[in-house]
Specification:
Distance between the termini: 41 Å
Number of helices: 4
CATH class: Mainly Beta
CATH superfamily: Phage tail tube protein
Strand content: 35-45%
CATH topology: Pnp Oxidase, Chain A
Number of strands: 8
CATH architecture: Roll
Shape: globular
Order of helices and strands: HHEEEEHEEEEH
Helix content: 10-25%
Amino acid sequence: MFFDIQKFARDYQDVTYRGRRRLSGNFGRLYISGVMIFEISAFEAKITANRDTVIIGQSEDSKITSLAGEGSFTIKQVFSRGFDKLLENWKNGYDERFVFVGVMRDPDTVQHQEERVRLENVAINEIMVQKWAKGEVVEKEIPFTWTPEDTYYENIIDLPNESVVHETNGGF
């Protein structure tokens, strides 16, 4: 009987990118126009490619016609956070815009990298004036949109140089 060591060997990536290398939302941060939103519990920003159908022969294909940026953030409310001023601006016809910077800085990231994405021309779409239930922490979700052409990756988490990362004593 032949013993195949390769069948039982672990891939380099299996060892280098163990479970601890997966990003945890616990280390995410959101800054709105330079102010850290400390009571945030969730953040999501996505870009959707809007497409029109194109027929080529008997096949259906598509063409990107525009991009749409939308997302939301959720806070566990501590104070009113300036939504009263935003509402007054809306009442007076002023559509205030913001700069959002989402940061993911997990200390277990290979080589301590961080992902930092900047969204400009952000518009808040909805203000939850008041929401609560007895026995629960008050949580509010705030939806927003922005122009995708105003999206900038300031830092990315990239694959490291393979010769630098061999994880023998911590991998850093």
